[in-house]
Amino acid sequence: MNEPRRRGRPVELDLERVGHVALDLFREHGYDAVTMEDIARVVGHSRRTIFRHFPAKASLVWAGTDGFADAVKSELERIDPAVPAIDAVRQAYIAAASVPPEIREVTRQRLLLIGDNHTLHADGVARFADVGLVIRQAFIDRDGLDPDGLEAAIVGDTLVLVAHQAFVWWARHGEGEPAAVLEAAFDRVAEGLRHR
Questions:
Q1: How far apart are CA 185 and CA 107, in angstroms?
Q2: H or E element: which one contains 13?
Q3: Using an 8 Å Cβ cutoff, are 86 and 186 in contact?
Q4: In sequence order, which ranges of the chain are alpha helices (DSSP H)?
Q5: Which of 39, 75, 137, 157 has its CB surrounded by the most CB atoms within 10 Å?
Q6: pLDDT tens across 119-145, in order?
Q7: How far is 173 from 77, CA to CA, in rounded Å?
Q8: Tell me: the pLDDT tens digits for 38-49?
Q9: Cα(23)–Cα(20) distance, integer angstroms
Q10: Distance, CA of 182 to CA of 170 (rounded, Å)
């Protein structure tokens, strides 16, 4: 069915409101039970309009993470090249993943959804592949890891998964800013990743 044409200027979509509505619906009814049509109906827009901004239902939960790889890379570039990779990556990841107090509770609710849903978790693995590549390159550049070696093949994705699990743990058990939990998680794997 075609959307009826409206006269005048189209009503602008409040992306933040759409995200909050979706999150509320997911929490109340379960992620899998809510459709994009349900969300569109509650926010008063067509499903097509919602899809223009959020190409998949998962993107409503992961909203705001699109530039994360660039943020980590930018933070790494500010850190002295002599700092070992694991220490530089930990510092850069924590800085890039900082959660302002005003969105901490929304972030917690999103992470709880992600932690409880395999589809959302799998979507996150794909979304953060670029972050893994940035981390891998930091180890190659800073610690001289062999780009074709086993360690280079696993280090980036391993640290992304560690950070993800730390964030989900924080959402379930932590208080305050998640930075302390991220730092503790990176510390647990640091000794095995330090350049020898």
A1: 19
A2: none
A3: yes
A4: 15-29, 36-43, 47-53, 57-61, 68-78, 85-96, 104-116, 118-127, 129-143, 150-173, 179-193
A5: 39
A6: 888 888 888 999 999 999 999 999 999
A7: 32
A8: 999 998 888 888
A9: 5
A10: 9
Per-residue confidence (pLDDT) for residue 11, from 0 to 100: 56
Quote the radius of gyration of the chain (alpha carbons, Å): 19
How far, in Å, CA of 188 to CA of 115, rounded?
A: 21
Q: Is the pTM of this model over 0.90?
A: no
Q: What pLDDT score was predicted for residue 13?
A: 75
Nearest in space to 15 (alpha carbons), one of 45, 34, 1: 45
Give the integer Cα–Cα distance in Å for 105 and 39: 21
Reading the block at residue 83, the tokens are 């700092």
What letter does residue 4 receive in the DSSP assignment?
Answer: P
Contact 57, 47 (CB under 8 A): no
Q: Per-residue pLDDT tens for 163-195?
A: 999 999 999 998 888 999 999 999 988 876 654
